TrEMBL record:
Binding residues for 5-hydroxyisourate: 48-49, 150, 167, 216, 242
Keyword Oxidoreductase: yes
Upper lineage: Eukaryota, Metazoa, Chordata, Craniata, Vertebrata
Compartments it resides in: Peroxisome
Catalytic reaction annotation: urate + O2 + H2O = 5-hydroxyisourate + H2O2
Binding site for O2: 48, 242
Protein name: Uricase
GO biological process: purine nucleobase catabolic process; urate catabolic process
Pathway(s) served: Purine metabolism; urate degradation; (S)-allantoin from urate: step 1/3
Superkingdom of source: Eukaryota
GO CC terms in record: peroxisome
Primary localisation category: other
First and last residue of the signal peptide: none
NCBIfam families per UniProt: urate_oxi
């Protein structure tokens, strides 16, 4: 049991400069005894309102140095404070506020919400067990208007999809990775590096791009690039929900539409998912 959607804005002031971080937290506990379920005995139950207040107090006392560290702080607090807690899991996601810039100069106290992917993390721990940390990015919408196709696929009497060697590749990406054994990582730096890997693998070189034969191959390229460049990542999951575009037929309007006006196909949409990890992690 626990408390969901604990939302708050944490401000840190460095003189006139303000640092703002708005987050949403979910904190769930499992107790050493199920007596509240089986017997109606609430003597060990930590009220969810108390859970909420603890999260807010930790934000006040410790700040939010990184999403991952804040999630770790919450787990550590419940494990060290309450002997009846057998397991704790914390989820934290961030509202994507970015500092405003005017003529390249960062503003000291103004921000803009930029929906270019939502950062999140999870931390979970069993009593006498290791602390496990996950991180990720979701709702990241990506598109490239060429250098993508889909050919040579299996066909039977139910196949109506034509082969395409030049199409738009567009989708909403979810990516989650595991750090394995939690160490003193620079979580902010690692998250930014992984995000850069995602964008690079999806788009290819800026002057020419890179051909994608399928959504599946693009997913794999993202995972392989992250694992090759970020040694702290042990397992990475990627889900790409696809958006398809159809060229509008303008012959009746007396126009030739050479893939200049397209409309999105709202539903149904495709989805590709894959989990990839280092061999030593799975063997362990």
């Amino acid at each position: 049991y626990g408390k969901n959607t604990i939302k708050f804005l944490r401000l840190h002031r460095e003189g006139k400069k303000h640092v703002a971080k708005e987050v949403e937290v979910c904190a769930h506990l499992r107790l050493t005894s199920p007596q509240e379920y089986l017997e109606g005995n609430n003597s060990l139950v930590i009220p969810t309102d108390t859970i909420k207040n603890i999260v807010l107090v930790l934000a006040k006392k410790n700040g939010i140095p990184s999403l991952e560290q804040f999630a770790i702080d919450i787990c550590n607090h419940f494990m060290t404070t309450f002997c009846q807690v057998a397991y704790v899991k914390t989820y934290v996601q961030e509202v994507p506020w970015q500092r405003l810039h005017e003529d390249g100069v960062p503003h000291i106290h103004s921000f803009i919400c930029v929906p270019d992917g939502i950062r999140f993390c999870e931390a979970e721990q069993c009593r006498n067990g290791p602390l496990i940390v996950f991180a990720g990015i979701k709702d990241l919408k990506l598109m490239k208007t060429t250098q993508s196709g889909f050919e040579g696929f299996y066909k039977n009497e139910h196949t109506t999809l034509p082969e395409r060697h030049d199409r738009i590749l567009c989708g909403e990406l979810f990516c989650k990775w595991s750090y394995g054994e939690c160490k003193d990582f620079d979580f902010d730096c690692i998250w930014k590096k992984i995000r850069e890997c995602i964008l690079e693998a999806f788009a290819g070189p800026p002057d020419c791009g890179e051909y994608s034969p399928s959504y599946q191959k693009t997913v794999n390229c993202i995972q392989m690039l992250v694992l090759s460049r970020v040694s702290q990542v042990q397992v990475i999951e990627v889900v790409l929900n696809n958006t398809f575009y159809n060229v509008v037929d303008m012959k009746n309007l007396g126009l030739t539409n050479d893939k200049e006006v397209l409309v999105p196909v709202e539903a149904p949409y495709g989805s590709c998912a894959c989990t990839l990890g280092r061999k030593k992690f799975f063997e362990a």
